[in-house]
Amino acid sequence: MSLPPGFLDELRTRLSIGQVVGRKVMWDQRKSNQAKGDLWAPCPFHQEKTASFHVDDRKGYYYCFGCHAKGDAISFVRETENVSFIEAIEILAGEAGMQMPARDPRAQEKADRRSQLAEVMERAVQFYRLSLRQGVGAAARDYLKGRGLDGEAADRFEIGFAPEGWQVLWDHLKGKGVEDDLILGAGLAKPSQKGGKPYDTFRNRIMFPIRDPRGRCIAFGGRAMDPNDGAKYLNSPETELFDKSRTLYNHGPAREAAGKGQPLIVAEGYMDVIALVQAGFGAAVAPLGTAVTEHQLAMLWRVAPEPVVALDGDTAGLRAAYRVIDLALPLLEAGQSLRFALMPEGQDPDDLIRASGAGALQERLDAAMPMVRLLWQRETEGQVFDSPERKAALDRALRDRIKLIRDPSIRSHYGQDIKEMRWQLFRPARPAGARPGLAPGFARNRPIVPVAPTRASALVADAEAPERMRVAVILATCLTCPDILDEFEGALETIEPSDGDHRALRDALLRHAGAVDLREAVAGEVGAEALETLMSNTHVAITPSLRDPQNTDLARATLAEELAKLDAARGHALELAEAVEDLTGTPDETLTWRLAQAAEARDRAMRSQQTDTTEYDTGDNGARINRDERAALDALMEKISFEKRRK
């Protein structure tokens, strides 16, 4: 019925939800504060000993931290009294002393007709159940027994059988005095296109009653016994009682089981749900032959904050999961999501339980992946990302999906998880024996192993000191000015710090790029001590960009310069390392020329370093390293001359 404007507001104003709920619960006096309207009690919707059910009398709502039931006084009466919305309002209006508005006669007629349709559906339930027990249902009983359903299971789920014949149910209901329009209106028969009697909707099918959360039969699902039937499963047509986009099979019992702590499982069909319930997973539901709808998602989340979608382990099952992801992304809220449990290849939950038992299914549920993981799998599975263009296409596809999320906090966390998985996918692997600090491409193709006479030389041991200083400044600048990190993320991925602490900091920076508090996120992974050690180094502390963290232009210039110098120094180190490696063979003119080029490059670097204005290059450390490297070069040249003279 239609209520006048302001009626519900006035009703809620007059009511105390504490008094309404107080009729059903015993308040925990130690935990409750009656004066402030802060009330706690054991939850009336599920069995518990602790007081996890909270009522805020001033705001007029309740919430259970155990089963997540929530609502206002009206919803509380609806759930506890098992009444309709209007009936709950009538109860509360009587308590508040408010006169209910006059009923709309047409609305009353509609409500009366719905009640009549529900009665016709119950008659059909009884007819189908009786037919299954009779001789006409022998083949159907054998089929159910083969699927592991005995007579007790069939009774529990009220499974029946629709016999062959065009008017078997029609004639039965007419014999009970049911009017034609009610049989047709309930979707149990269809009018003949040839002018004859209406014919039964379901024929030669195993019948599964579909009930609403209040327990009323509103539709049927029929499984064909004839393998040549065009439709293996057939649902009732939509009626005044039945809207398949807003209905879940086994909704009422599943809600009750979920309230007692069982995980809410979303399966694909009737038999999967029945198998799950028989195996002890009582909170199992299924959509009705169609893809999950937005309304069904809302219904699922009202039962449990994180339902587990259990899908067949085949291509069709994965496609169904991917459709659910696209539907759910814009609807996500904090604490409200989905997880996905994929069955083994070629099996559905029913198959898995019959083949391996309930324990095998429980393992799949325990390993259910969060939605972000399945989203990543969809975009990457079977793909090869061997070019920048393919990587960019992946980035674009993922960005487009994440943009669908309306909640900014969830969108941010999805971005972080995607970055972490992207980092794991694209991070260059360092082969065994590869020298830290060399370009990744060289390390993959030609690992460097210093020969014995040079392994302990100053060239190898001390030349990494400037690199460590530059890497330290790069990392500290990124931590201090996180706004520019995304511009240098690609370059940061390519550096391979020789210092283990620096590697850990670099990896943490890339994983948490975009975090609200980058320094806190990095410290949470590597520890605050590692950050303090980095920032307290003298050559870091005196860097101009770190003294003025608000100057992003200065920070940007510092990063660009240090990365360029690091790249140039590594190119020089690469030449020397290759020359050192070639000393294991016979020196020739090519090697002599390469060493001369390396010496000249180093001389240019030395001259540049003498005019370097970077403040962390202070003292004579750099000069000492330059002298050592020059000495190493001279030693190499002398060895070549000696080898030639000996020849």
Automatic annotation (TrEMBL):
Q: Could you give a GO molecular-function term held by this entry?
A: zinc ion binding
Tell me which cofactor or cofactors this protein depends on. Answer: Zn(2+)
List residues of the Toprim domain.
262-346
State which Enzyme Commission number(s) the record gives.
Answer: 2.7.7.101
Which EC class does it fall in? transferase
- Tell me which SMART domains the record gives: TOPRIM (SM00493), ZnF_CHCC (SM00400)
Has keyword Transmembrane?
Answer: no
Q: Name one Pfam family in it.
A: DNAG_N
Q: Which family does it belong to?
A: Belongs to the DnaG primase family.
Task: Share what the entry says about its subunit structure, partners included.
Answer: Monomer. Interacts with DnaB.
Q: Could you tell me what this protein is called?
A: DNA primase
